[in-house]
Design goal:
single chain; 4-stranded mixed sheet
Length: about 325
Amino acid sequence: MTTVTTLGQGHQPADTPDPSAAGRQGVVAALVLIGGYTIVEVVAGFMSGSLALLAHAGHMLTDAVFLVLALVTMRLSGRSTAEHTYGYHRTEVIAALINALVLWGISVWVLIEAYRRLSATPEVDGRILLIVASVGLVVNIAAVWTIHGAAQKNATLEGSFQHMITDLLGSVAVVVAAVLVWAFGWQVADPVTSMLIGVLILTSTWRLLSRVMDVLLEGTPEHIDLYALCHKLEELDGVTVIHDVHCWTLAPGYVALTAHMLVDPAYAADGGHEILLDRVRDIAYDEFDIQHITVQLETTAGRCVEAHHVDHLLATARAPL
């Protein structure tokens, strides 16, 4: 006869999207800075004839989208219902996917337009370009500084922060191009800088898209060594083998784990279940930074019909931690 004990446990980490009021205020302030100056750059880009300003405005627009997304995620992600038992954590992932595809469209247009301008470079107003680019650099620095503290405590904001750092590098490139156009009349600096920003957008977007697709395909998070985790759990007293293991990311900074553990019947008879489950919690939470765990304890695998997934036993080349 099979005796099964199930543990379902959610753990709210310190960096789960529920920041302090000060953190939310920082995000709102950064959003106002980024969103407002995006409009300024678009207007100035058309006035000055600068493609670099328009390209940078497109990148800043994605920063604003990420910040809006962060605010929405803070409010919605932890709200679970009978219809959405994990809450709305995936709203961030879906929106990030849409954002990445939009970014690809922007970067392709920038690269095509920049290539066209290399052969017939239009006149760019260097003075407007320099003024707007310089102020834009200050705005980017201010926005990064505004959410820096909150990003260190919040996994959702950390992605936005990294994206804004990339945008800051693009802002530096636009300032350099503005100096070259204004001081030396090198009009070609504008389309060249635009191409650099386009490549920068493609690079950052590819990383973003890779992470998003990994989450949607429920891949094991990069920081989780699943083989080492299985070895750790199998070394616990009373555990015979761990199988049917699944570890995936619900949303950035929120990892889930489910597993079946075959336990020695004699150990289970001695009332060792609670001690075992406490050790599983400690290992999953503290050593592997997993926030949501569900572990099923079994004394026999005879009635377990799920796929067992015990390939970690064959991975002898990977030594446990």
